[in-house]
Every structure is written in C-alpha cells, then in structure tokens.
Design brief:
By secondary structure, this protein is an alpha+beta fold. It has one domain: 3-methyladenine DNA Glycosylase, Chain A, CATH 3.10.300. It contains four helices and eight strands, in the order ααβββββααβββ. α3 crosses α4 (133-140). The chain is globular, with a radius of gyration of 16 Å. It starts with 10 loop residues before the first helix and ends in an 8-residue tail after the last strand. The chain binds a DNA duplex (13 and 13 nucleotides) through β3, β4 and α4.
Length: 200
Amino acid sequence: MENTDVKKLPREFYNRDVLTVAEEILGKTLVHITKEGVTKGKIVEVEAYNGLCDKAAHSYKNLRSKRTEIQYGEGGHAYVYLIYGMHHCMNIVVNRENLPEVLLLRALQPIEGLELMKKRRKTENVKMLCNGPGKLCQAMEITREHYGEDLCGENFYLENTPSVKPEEIVRTKRINIDYAKEAVDFPWRFFIKGNPYVSR
DNA sequence: GTGAAGATTAACT
DNA sequence: GTTAATCTTCACA
C-alpha cells in the first residue's frame, strides 16, 4: 500500500460526541513533524471539557471569546493556550460546529524522537517527558503557533494506532480544577490502566 | 487602563 | 503538603 494517508485519522473521527472520542482516542499516536525531526507519542491520558454545562471549561456558558473561538469550529483542530504564563496546553476540538467540546491531552507515552524530546525537556528520564499537559507540549514542541492547526494536515496529526480495550480504560474525576464547584465530580478523565506514563 | 485569576510545574519544608 | 514563578486573557471602569 502506498497511500500514507490511510493511517491518519479522518475528520469523521473527531466529529462525534466528546466522551465517545475520549474513549477511542486512548492508544492513538500524536505525530508532529518539525525541522528538527519527528516526534510521536501515544495518547495515554485525556480529559473532556464541555462548555455547555462544565464550569471548568474556558467556554462555559457558551462564552465565545478570542481564546475559545476555535472550539466552536468543526472537530479535528488544535486548541493551544498558555497557562500560568509558563506552560502550554494542547487540546483537540471535537464534535460539530457551534458545540464547544474539547479534549485536553494530559499525558503521552513517547514512541519516536526520544532524543529530541530529552533535549527539549532537558531530562534523561523518559517517564518525565510527557506525563503532564505542560510537559508533553514542551516535548512535542507545541506552541501557540499551533492554535487552530488542522490535525488532518501534513505535519501535525493523529495516527490510527489500535484503540485500548474497554476494560483497560479507567474513568475518574478530573484534576486541578477545584475552583469548578460541582463540575469537579464529573468523571471525565480517561487514562490507560496501569500505564506508567500517565500523570501523577 | 487596571486588576485578578488560572485545565501547571518544580522546588521546597 | 505548600509555594513561587510568570503572562495571557477577561471583566470592569
């Protein structure tokens, strides 16, 4: 087979309910091709955010702003923002237009480009490369320049590696959003059971 | 124009 | 477990 697009996840994958995509996206591989080289990482932990009823989401109450605008577009685009003035966070916009649903990538398992990641992160500890939202962005060299980037594009996309079996998916409450009142208890954090690369 | 808060991390006690 | 670092975005005047 010569068609390399076969392994790329199609637009239809993203244009579905955020919780459905959250379960199926575990095990997929995030690929970023840069001038320095290629980095790949398996998605092992995500969190779902739904602006319509989620106080933790930036787009809560259908708040449309400069920052959240991309969330109202169609699925498959990247939503990148700077948090605490020091770290980037990478999200994937899902579902259809006008529905502000996103997935926050919390952790990756490094697959390819390990040396490049180590250099960017300035550490030799592989487990420390991508086990957090800010860390994985640094390792994959994801910045605000990727805001609105189409994940169906050439240099930045998801590879259709096998999904994780349902019994290997753990679903729990989310992390570090204590300010979000009752939304704190929404079980919208998904990760792969027993995987050593999930965040602490 | 001014101010407050934050989907984190690393370093501390 | 607690705290500082650091800056964009948003709400208000």
